[in-house]
Amino acid sequence: MGRIVVTEYISVDGVVEAPSGTEHFARVGWIDDFRRGQEGDEFKIHETMASDALLLGRVTYDGFAPVWPQVEGAFADKFNTMPKYVVSSTLEDPGWSNTTVLAGDVIEEVGKLKTQYAGDIVVHGSPQLAQTLIEHELVDELRLMVYPIIVGAGKRLFAQTSSTKRLQLVEAKTVGDGIHILVYRPAHRE
């Protein structure tokens, strides 16, 4: 059975919107002046190389799809060749190679995905999708790169939930310019 892993760049105040890139957000690029350092870069490389598939929301997909095919290197090759799933009710013809649109019930579709893979199905960004997966207890691991910045506006990762969601910290380290890497798993599954 595969694992759903949510990985996020997140500010101290919980913002995950437009950490870098060209999105239409007044405070886009809030991670751009920080360096993760070698240990932080290795964390992201290992995370990607260990992934079996990507699971993305439509906004994140629309940001990734035109960029990654233009990038070279082992990291980009992995992103471009691995299976990708995008949750969308309107996307019909995804242009990024190996992309499948999940248009049905997201909970049911993600449950099916977990049975198709043995390793990690990684959700990058995609806050609305991540919130849905957290609410329905489908997230097996939550990886947060907490940047030492207060963005003060934008989409936040943690929305209201129907109940508390207790987590267990399984890894913590500080890398680069004071970026905390925090890895959590649901406490009830330990």
Can you walk through the features of this model?
Strands 4-3-2-5-1-6-8-7 form an 8-stranded mixed sheet, with helices on both faces. The chain has one domain: Dihydrofolate Reductase, subunit A, CATH 3.40.430. The chain is of the alpha/beta class and 190 residues long. The chain contains 5 helices and 8 strands; from the N terminus they run E-H-E-H-H-E-E-H-E-H-E-E-E.
How are the SSEs placed, and which strands pair?
Elements: E1 3-11, H1 37-49, E2 51-57, H2 58-64, H3 74-81, E3 84-87, E4 99-102, H4 106-116, E5 120-124, H5 127-135, E6 141-147, E7 167-175, E8 179-186
Parallel strand pairs: 1-5, 1-6, 2-3, 2-5, 3-4
Antiparallel strand pairs: 6-8, 7-8
Can you describe this structure in just a few lines?
The chain has 5 helices and 8 strands.
Question: Which descriptors would you attach to this protein?
Answer:
single chain, 190 residues, alpha/beta, Dihydrofolate Reductase, subunit A, eight-stranded mixed β-sheet, 5 helices, 28% strand
How many DSSP helices?
Answer: 5
CATH superfamily: Dihydrofolate Reductase, subunit A
Task: Sketch the topology as an H/E string, one letter per element.
Answer: EHEHHEEHEHEEE
Give the N-to-C terminal Cα separation.
Answer: 16 Å
CATH architecture heading: 3-Layer(aba) Sandwich
**Strand runs, count:** 8
User: How much of the polypeptide forms β-strand, as a percent range?
Assistant: 25-35%
Gyration radius over CA: 16 Å
Structural class: alpha/beta
CATH topology-level fold name: Dihydrofolate Reductase, subunit A
Count of discrete structural domains: 1
Biggest sheet record: 8 strands, mixed
